[in-house]
Amino acid sequence: MRVAIVGGGMTGMSAADELAQRGIAVTLFEKDASLGGLAGSFEVNGIHLEKFYHHLFTSDTGMVALIRRLGLEEKLQWLPTSNSYYVNRIYRLSTPLDLLRFSHISILDRVRVGLLYLRTMFVNDWHPLEEISARDWLVRMAGEGVYRGVWEPLLRTKFGRYADQVAAVWIWNKLKLRGSSRGKKQEERLGYLHGGFAQVVEAWERRLRDQNVKIRLSTPVERVTIEDAVATGVVVNGEHLPYDRVLVTTAPELLTHMAPDLPDDYRRQLTDIDYLANVCLVMELDRSLSNTYWLNIGDPTIPFTGVIEHTNMQRPEDYGGAHLTYISRYLDADDPAYTMSAEDLLDSYVPYLQRMFRGFQRDWVQRVWAWRERYTQPVIGLHYSQRKPPFRAPVQHLWHSCMAHIYPEDRGMNYAVLYGQRVVDEMLSAERER
Ligand SMILES: Cc1cc2nc3c(=O)[nH]c(=O)nc-3n(C[C@H](O)[C@H](O)[C@H](O)COP(=O)(O)OP(=O)(O)OC[C@H]3O[C@@H](n4cnc5c(N)ncnc54)[C@H](O)[C@@H]3O)c2cc1C
Question: Quick count: other Cβ atoms within 10 Å of Cβ 79?
Answer without folding.
Answer: 16
